[in-house]
Amino acid sequence: MPAMPIRQLPEGLVNRIAAGEVVERPASVVKELIENALDAAATRIDVLTDGGGRRLIEVTDDGAGMTAADLALAVERHATSKLPDDDLLAIRSLGFRGEALPSIGAVARLAMTTRHGSEPHAWNIRVDGGTKFALKPAALACGTQVEVRDLFYATPARLKFLRSDRSESEAIREIVRRLAMSRPDVAFTLAGEERAPVTWPARLPGAAGRLARLADILGPEFRANAVEVNGGNEKLAIEGFAALPTHSRANSLGQYLFVNGRPVRDKLLIGAVRAAYADYLPRDRHPIVALFVTVDPREVDVNVHPAKAEVRFRDSGLVRSFLVRTMQEALAREGRRTATTGGAATIAALRPAGLSARAGWDWRTSPARPGGAFAPTRGAAALAEPAQSAFEVGAPSADLREEEPTADWTTHPLGTARAQVHETYIVAQTPDGLVIIDQHAAHERIVYERLKAALERTGVARQILLIPEIVELDESSVERLLARGDELARYGLAIEPFGPGAVAVRETPALLGEINAQALVRDLAQHMQEWDEALPLERRLMHVAATMACHGSVRAGRRLKPEEMNALLREMETTPNSGQCNHGRPTYIELKLGDIERLFGRR
Fold it and tell me: Which residues span the domain enclosing 551?
């Protein structure tokens, strides 16, 4: 192919190429327009869409508005009011490139109506596919209204890459949700798409107002299970809320991260969140968080992406370590809490079928009640011996009814053990309800925390086996285990090669007592197969500790004595993070007396 001469592209084509970098889809337009409204000090923003944003996007705000001269410049390339001293290292606004409005006007029909407080009336300007029209007087209260119609009509090829109206509408909703989280002091309304308008009222400043806005968007369950995260100084600070580990999701879509008020999807921050929850969640569960990082504008570059979706920190290591430490402190502070959803789900399961959570239940209207509440004949017949056999479900595994409660049982958060059922669950009575404990999950967390504490203090004590345990494995598993021999030795597990397809276990952690060394080594080999070579040593050690804790804890199916049950409860109350096991499952479920009374129609 012969060499082509270099030529300068026409202005219209340049504008459309630039528009493609900023305006990827209708949600991008909504994001840019809302950011402009927030920068204009708006206290209320209304968003209206149609056809997934293809046919119409309308954003109205009550911000400062623009004068006629500013409006004429607003649709010109690289014209902005947000860089007063031309310092790109000190960005203190959301929009600063001066590309959004001209880029939108290059690919759609753009109409803007605005009024500044100093103007006697509003002004309107139109831009159709890059063609600008003259300013005209208009009617509008103070603020700005931006109307975008027929998006991408000037670049039909882009329309082919848009998804369905429903998908584009959901993307717009997600953008509005994220921006509404960042500014709880601003009221938002989202309407259109043949659905009822959604309104998030303005909230008071501070943590309480932020949590109220997050509850509006993420639901009351997040509010009930949220842990406040707060720390830092004027140069680097973090605030927001993180859900308890037992209130998690199967994907990472519940992670909302902000830097200086800007919603971002930053790999560094996502990795820090994952590291903070590493002691609580398995690899297939993801936390729900809304975190707001405030950093000196000179320490972060927000200009690395045309759509401002990514940022780059000057000292990324400092930001990551600070974020991990602050979140871990917050989670440890509330580590003995477990998700309220467990108790709520239990109550819902016990509630008679077809009864809504809000409706009251009256035993007199239950289809399961006797034919007459005061019919002694039918009542006596119902209690005849053949009928009574239906209630013979067997005795509990352990029954503590004859045990006298200790004098101070009401002072213990987890109460006093009353029974063990199915040799797996402990039922304890508390001052205002009852608690059901999973004995294996609870003891697993206790052993795990003991291992970590022992490693930090003096190292894990070992016990020498009189006869080494030989574990046969495939050669690749043996190689993986021997390669991690030093890491296993730090936790008291000493292994050495025993032929091409086996290892000999010579020492085990004394803390675990008598364990099945065969099963432990096989589990460790299986877990190591999933490890990434880039996984930090600390995380690998925690994986080893978690696996050992699982094998060294009280197993389901073991009958416990009354004193053992109460000892487990007391130890849970003093163990960090005892609200969940190492795999993110709750260790106990609490049922309040009021909820139980409502089930029986007492309230």
Answer: 398-595
